[in-house]
Each structure stands twice: as structure tokens, then as C-alpha cells.
Amino acid sequence: MNKCFIFAHYDSNNLIKPYIIDEINLLNELGDVLFISDCEYIININELPHVKYLQIARHFLYDAHSYMCGFNYLKYAKLLDFYDNITFVNSSILFPICEKDLFIKTINEFDYDSSDVYGMCKSAYMIQSYWITCKKNTYISVNKFFDNYIPATKENVYDWYNTIKDKTLINKYNRWYVSRIKEVGEETALKWIYTVIHFEEGFSRYLYNNKFKLTALDYCCWPKSRFITKYPRESGSNT
């Protein structure tokens, strides 16, 4: 099976941390890696293991844009048909927290099961966006989603916020929103909520509504996962 991992990276200090190096090495054992970094530059870029494609460019548009950049690279390079599945994974998680062999075995089992899309963690219909694997039969729909996705630019986010009628969408995330305002300011906090609603929830909702079967290694959120945990979020982080 041919697999591709689109790895969305961000680091407020423009570094590739040791755990990222370990993760890229593991993913290289499983398939090809596209490394998309939302940094202006990376100080220790020489420490990055071999990857099939490398992009370093500050875009301020969260993982959704990095994932789209990687997917578009495959599309325009006419490589989509080569891969049996494509995994979107970001640098906010530490994996595996179980034995490496168990992690690989479980991933391989999900590659061949009846699902169309699987993730690390899932609640209701939503797969957490730090790890989403899409199988080949979904690529046309994934492409349509990215083509129609409105990026989280300042202008787009404020236009959306000022016109949205259902403010309960904002209130749903109020506790985290207030916390992020204190850390990074209103604009970045609002961009985070926009991305959660339109990409993290929106992508799963879109796939679900298109009748794809969504499964996960764990039916829970990351604190209770057997396979991954979260890397402590740094002040000023956009992930």
C-alpha cells in the first residue's frame, strides 16, 4: 500500500523539535512525507529527516492551509492516483505513546478496513483534525472541499463574525476563546474559532454528509487516547 503523510508544522521559535524528528522518521517507515511548515524559516532545517516535499512559508492560516498546500502539490504533480491513502497530521501531537509495533499494526488494520476516512480520535461524527486519513475514493470530494474552503484571513474571519446570526457557535467555545484572547489577542483567537468551526468540524461534517464512513482508533478526545497525546501548547502558538 502506498501512503502519503502531509505533515503540518508550526513552531513559534522556528525550530524542528526532537519529537518531530522522531515522528518524521516513523512516518518515513510507513510512506512518503510532505513537510509543510508555517514558519518563515527553520533554524535547524539540516536536522529534518528526508522528506518527499518541503515547503517553508509563513501563511498564518492554520493547519487547514498547510494540509491544502500538500494536497495541491500531489494534485498538480499528478501523484494523487499513486497513493492509496493520504494522511493529514500536525505537529501538535506526540505519537505513539504505545509500543511502536502496536501503533503500526493498528494503523495498517485501519488502512484495510471498511472505513473511507479514519482518525486517531473521534466524537460523534467529528474526527479530530490532528490526524485524518482519507482513502482514495474520497480524493475527489476532498479536492472539492479545499476548492470551496474560505481561508482564515483577517478579512474573511471578521466578515464571517460580523454577519453570523447564530452566535451560539461562538459561545460553544467561549471558555477557550477567552483564554486564547489573553494569550494571543482577539484576532488570532477568533481565527482559531473560525478554523475549528469551518475546518475541524466542517471537514468531518462535509465528509459525513457525503456518505463517507468515518471511524477512529479511539472514540474519545486526545486525553484518553491510547495512541497519541498533545504536545504542550506554547504561548503564541497558532496550533
Report on the architecture of this protein.
The protein has 239 residues and is α/β, with parallel strands linked by helices. It has one domain (3-150, 211-230): Spore Coat Polysaccharide Biosynthesis Protein SpsA, Chain A. 41% of the residues lie in helices and 19% in strands. The protein is built from 8 helices and 10 strands. The protein has helices at residues 18-30, 62-76, 100-111, 139-148, 154-163, 168-171, 174-184, 186-209, and strands spanning 3-9, 32-37, 53-56, 85-90, 93-94, 117-123, 126-127, 131-135, 214-218, 229-230. Strands 1, 2, 3, 4, 6, 7, 8 and 9 form an 8-stranded mixed beta sheet that branches. Strands 5-10 form a two-stranded antiparallel sheet. α7 (174-184) crosses α8 (186-209). The longest helix is centred in the last third of the chain and has 24 residues, at 186-209.
CATH architecture field:
Alpha-Beta Complex
CATH topology: Spore Coat Polysaccharide Biosynthesis Protein SpsA, Chain A
Average pLDDT, all residues: 92
Class of secondary structure makeup: alpha/beta
Beta-strand residue percentage: 15-25%
> Tell me about the biggest sheet?
8 strands, mixed
Low-confidence stretches: 235-239
| Count of strand segments | 10
The value of Rg in angstroms is: 17 Å
N-to-C order of helices and strands: EHEEHEEHEEEHHHHHEE
Quote the distance from N terminus to C terminus: 30 Å
The number of helical segments is 8
- State the share of residues found in helices, binned by percent: 40-55%
| Number of domain units | 1
Structural shape: globular
What is the top-level CATH class?
Alpha Beta
